[in-house]
Amino acid sequence: MAALPKKDVVIVGYGAAAGPVSLELAAAGYSVVVLERGPHLTTERDFQTGSFDSLRWAVRQEMVPGADIMPLTFRNRADQVAIPAPYRMASAVGGSSIHWSGQSWRFYEDDFRLRSTLAAAYGKSGLAYHLAADGAALADWPLAYRELEPFYDKVEYHIGIGGWPGNIAGAIRPLRSDEGNPFEAPRQRDYPFRPLRDNATDLVFRGAALALGLKPFHVPTAITTEDWTSPYGISRNACTYCSYCMNYGCWNGSKGSSLVALLPAALKSGNFELRANAHVLRVNHRNGRAVSVTYIDGEGREQEQRGDIFILAAYSFQNVRLLLHSGIDGNGQVGKYFINRPEFHVSATFDDRYLNGYAGPSVQRQAIDDFNGENAAEEKLRLGPDRFFVRGAAICSASQRLPLETYNDVPPDVPRWGAGYKAYLSKYLNRYLRVLAIAEPMPYEDCFIDLDPTHKDKYGVPAARVTRAVKTNELRMCRFIYDKIAALYRAAGAAKIWGRRDAIAVASMVHDCGGLRMGVEPDSSATNRYGQLWTMPNLFVAGGALMPTMSGHNPTETIWALSYWQSAAILEKKLDLTDARRV
Ligand SMILES: Cc1cc2nc3c(=O)[nH]c(=O)nc-3n(C[C@H](O)[C@H](O)[C@H](O)COP(=O)(O)OP(=O)(O)OC[C@H]3O[C@@H](n4cnc5c(N)ncnc54)[C@H](O)[C@@H]3O)c2cc1C
Ligand code: SF4
Which of 303, 374, 392, 437 sits at 20 to 30 Å (Cα–Cα) from 116? Predict the structure, then answer.
């Protein structure tokens, strides 16, 4: 079949990462085509009537493709044979920004310079020796927080993030003394609207945190809490606190996603073409330049789309997989330094009160950052060499504990079926609380993504294979955080507390970053600071794969900010599409 007419920009995947860059380039006059393998679901047709179905969206995960489409395999070490692992990301126009929770915050300033921060704090002490022994591959980002700040601001004001500010230009908790995260990095102005209100689980968490002398705050969220119109002219309703939120498309258009907050503006530009059900198989290249992508369209036909600039925005696993399958691994950096969080939560029941944790969206949350980043540095030093760890975690209460999503989180001494199980549910289903930790993981030399030699998708493309283990730092961190959460529960008067104190690694924790690290040198990174591949300068990567290190905060606001940052670099012509070193 003849190749389709050439476009200025060809984007693979339309999730969070593709949203800003595709809109900004189209609005500036570039002809943009987006090839998204999933269907174009809409609020009106698919979510307004179909959303309130836990079996469909949360249990059977109807938006998440199966192993015949997105195979993923997992092992802890390179000498093991990987086994199939669940893929957890949505495939639809909007990607996982449709069914995500919406917890939306910035990274810390020192998240952008982790290597220097840790070297300055612990370099001489030898205390962080366990990191070196485990092969930690620490790095500083090739950009500083202050460079990304205007783009964080753009995310908050254009996509719509609600919160209380914790730090406006250095003034801590400037508006009310008890709201906002006092540890956050400085922002230039307030949020455009306030966060979600508190429910009973939040008040219990908040009360316990205050009783322990900690500094609780409202989690910022990409959910409109009032009727709101963005600068793109897109109006969204105030959230109704319906509870069918994480894992579901929002029936009311309140939850921010590339689908509802960006796509309508992109389509209005007149330069933006969306092709849903277009599954990209490979990037075709000649003489060090990408020339086209081959994809299977909605009718099952193979198509070829030519372009000048290509942007892979298909999520970390698929970006790496597409590059390796296309034979693009010029400098041996593709797939290296994969980072994801350990799975971590702690639950509790209360005898003396109802919490009704089913009510409200998952991100109706209070949080503390007292043990995140370098905030508890003194306390960690006092742990001594056998328990010392670096960095930490945000700790938050979680709502939306709907019956079909909660039924199997029961204390270890409760039977999993029969009369004992029923008695437990009748008494405790509404007296139950879950607390989550967003634990910051480190990159390691031996944690990476490559192609599985055995498992393939239905088109014959090898599966993404993840090699990842929990290391000493993550184990020590999670034990410490478990004890902090248990202390919160005790302060709140919990009857029973349970969870896994030892973190475990899984293939996908939905915050799956790294794999295509950006940097300043081609010998230690896959792309330059704008996500431009060192070895193929007209091919860009967008998304969390670029992150050299992570954070104790969720990644998507940073993914959106990076995407705006990339579009500005392309538009301001800071880039040379023939040489990625010229930036
Ligand atoms: C249940 C859940 C809750 C979450 N909650 C939060 C939260 O509260 N806060 C937070 O910060 N983050 C959260 N996340 C993570 C967040 O969703 C991701 O960080 C974000 O969606 C990543 O953006 P992305 O564009 O890189 O990938 P995605 O959003 O996954 O988009 C990638 C798109 O590429 C498409 N694609 C893949 N391969 C191909 C191909 N070969 N051809 C064409 N298209 C392709 C996919 O179909 C998909 O639509 C959550 C994720 C999940 C699953
Ligand atoms: S809780 Fe609010 S944001 Fe979430 S799905 Fe319901 S209306 Fe939408």
Answer: 437
Protein residue with its CA nearest to atom 6 in ligand 2: 242
Could you write out the DSSP letters of every residue in 500-536?
-SS-B--S--S--B-SS-B-S-TTT-SB-TTSBBTT-
- The amino acid present at 228, given as its one-letter code, is W
User: What is the total residue count of the chain?
Assistant: 583
In a domain, 379, yes or no: no
| Within-domain flag for 152 | yes
Which pair of structure tokens corresponds to residue 450?
Answer: 């490559």
Please write the tens of the pLDDT for every residue from 125-165.
Answer: 888 899 999 999 999 999 999 999 999 999 999 999 999 99
Active site residues: 511
Measured from the Cα of 244, ligand 2's closest atom is 5
Say if ligand 2 is within 6 A of residue 245 CB.
yes
Structure confidence by residue, pLDDT tens digits, 336-357: 999 998 878 999 999 999 999 8
Q: Atom of ligand 1 at shortest distance to CA of 65?
A: 47
In the chain, the number of structural domains is 1
Q: How far is the CA of 118 from the centre of ligand 1 (A)?
A: 30
- Phi, psi for 299 (deg, rounded to 5): -95, 5
Q: Residue 295: inside a domain, yes or no?
A: yes
Q: Ligand 1, residues 88, 315, 365: which to mutate, most atoms within 8 A of Cβ?
A: 315
- Helix, strand, or coil (residue 437): strand
Ligand 1: atom nearest CA of 105 is 11
Compute the distance from residue 253 Cα to the ligand 2 centre, in Å: 8
User: Which residues, other chains included, contact 501 with Cβ-Cβ below 8 Å and sequence gap of 6+?
Assistant: 478, 479, 482
Please name the residue ranges forming H helices in 359-500: 377-382, 403-406, 418-428, 472-492
| Protein residue with its CA nearest to atom 8 in ligand 2 | 250
Of the bound ligands, which one is closest to the alpha carbon of residue 245?
2
Q: Does 141 fall in a domain?
A: yes
Please give the distance, rounded to the nearest whole angstrom, from the Cα atom of residue 549 to the centre of ligand 1. 18
Residue of 281, 236, 242, 240 lying closest to 263 (CA atoms): 236
pLDDT digits (tens, 9 = 90+) for 525-577: 999 999 999 999 999 999 999 999 999 999 999 999 999 999 999 999 879 99
Angle at 463 between CA 460 and CA 468, to 5 degrees: 170
Domain that holds residue 45: 1-49+85-161+248-340+511-583
CB 239 less than 6 A from any atom of ligand 2 = yes
Q: Which atom of ligand 1 is nearest to the CA of 221?
A: 8
* Whether residue 173 has pLDDT greater than 90: yes
240 C-beta closer than 6 A to ligand 2: yes
CATH number for position 573 = 3.50.50.60
Span 420-439, average pLDDT: 94
Residue to mutate (ligand 1; options 12, 40, 89, 219; most atoms within 8 A of CB): 89
Structure tokens at 211: 């009783």
